[in-house]
């Protein structure tokens, strides 16, 4: 744990443009960010997730992205979707990736819209249906997650996608 804190401090130094002569300030800033994140601040949770991602701790980044995403922060939803898509910090899972991309896309997050359109080409009809149900479940469980209406019959997969099984 101690090496991670040192790494996060170094990262915050770089991101904040601080000089290495100010490690106390960086440590205080990190402590404040962590405190805000612990108290439920979605923006702080997302920023803490980014700090963990920059420190090569995708698993911890995913934890904080999820917390912020459950509160409706589209950038965090997109980031968590990316982690599921690539398998960084969480098991690779296109259905979960699609669900999180869908939540962010419903808020007009352009990166999420593009990512969702890309992943759709790799999914079967059954996987898309499950992804839509999963997105709806996320909104039901976490009403602040925003943006997805009750799942309906998905459109057929676009040309060039895997055939339904």
Domains (count): 1
The dominant shape is: elongated
Radius of gyration: 18 Å
Structural class designation:
mainly alpha
Describe this structure in words.
This protein is mainly α and 165 residues long. The chain is built from eight helices and no strands. The chain has a single domain (2-145), classed as Tetratricopeptide repeat domain (Serine Threonine Protein Phosphatase 5, Tetratricopeptide repeat, Alpha Horseshoe). The N and C termini lie far apart (45 Å).
Task: Chart the SSEs and their pairings.
Blueprint: H1 2-16, H2 23-38, H3 42-54, H4 58-70, H5 74-86, H6 94-105, H7 110-120, H8 125-141
Could you give a short description of this structure?
The protein has helices at residues 2-16, 23-38, 42-54, 58-70, 74-86, 94-105, 110-120, 125-141. The protein is mainly alpha-helical.
